[in-house]
Design a protein that fits this description.
two-stranded parallel ribbon; Rossmann fold; 48% helix; 2 domains; 11 helices; three-stranded parallel β-sheet; 195 residues
């Protein structure tokens, strides 16, 4: 399972651009990652959350179109991986089609892309990874999750899966470290780590 779409810097800029849109305090009220829309709805109300989501999607699309490039080495890694793969992301299917398409890796996962919108609870809950494993017909204990977020590796652990924490982007390596997790920073090493 993979959740490294290469969109982290673009997402970060879109997120930062929303602070003024939902109010100066919003940045202090929400945690980075996880179900931000739910956090905003709980703390600021559903209308503010809907406005935030709409504006975020617009800013995200603009940032992706302007700046997104694939993670260095991802295509070579995907070409070398012989195990069944999928994407299990907190993003919507629309967002994933856009980001994975923009980076040229959507075809690697066609028909095997799962969104947190399909389950009751997003990361750090295990729901999404357990759902993806079930849909792929693989026992969770046989799965390896490739993640670039703290909440993602927490979700993998909660699902009873091993994880490979990719620290080659914005996430500090120490946020990814922990039980059943190998942290790496070069995507070209991914096939070797999976073998």
């Amino acid at each position: 399972m993979c959740e490294v779409e290469g969109a982290v810097p673009a997402v970060q800029r879109a997120f930062e651009g929303l602070h003024g849109h939902i109010g100066a305090d919003a940045g202090r009220l929400v945690e980075r990652g996880g179900a931000l829309g739910e956090q905003i709805a709980t703390r600021l109300g559903s209308s503010r959350a809907a406005a935030w989501q709409e504006r975020f999607e617009q800013l995200h699309r603009e940032a992706v179109d302007a700046e997104l490039t694939p993670v260095d080495g991802i295509r070579e890694a995907l070409d070398a991986i012989v195990l069944p793969t999928c994407v299990a992301s907190s993003g919507s299917h629309d967002k994933m089609r856009h980001t994975l398409g923009r980076t040229g890796i959507h075809q690697y996962f066609e028909g095997r892309i799962f969104s947190a919108s399909e389950v009751a609870h997003g990361k750090p809950a295990p729901d999404l990874f357990l759902y993806a494993a079930q849909r792929m017909g693989v026992d969770p204990s046989a799965c390896i999750v490739v993640e670039d977020s703290k909440y993602g590796v927490q979700a993998a652990r909660a699902a009873g899966m091993r994880s490979l924490g990719y620290a080659g982007g914005l996430t500090p390596a120490q946020w990814l470290e922990g039980p059943n997790t190998v942290v790496f920073d070069d995507m070209r090493k991914l096939p070797m780590l999976l073998s």
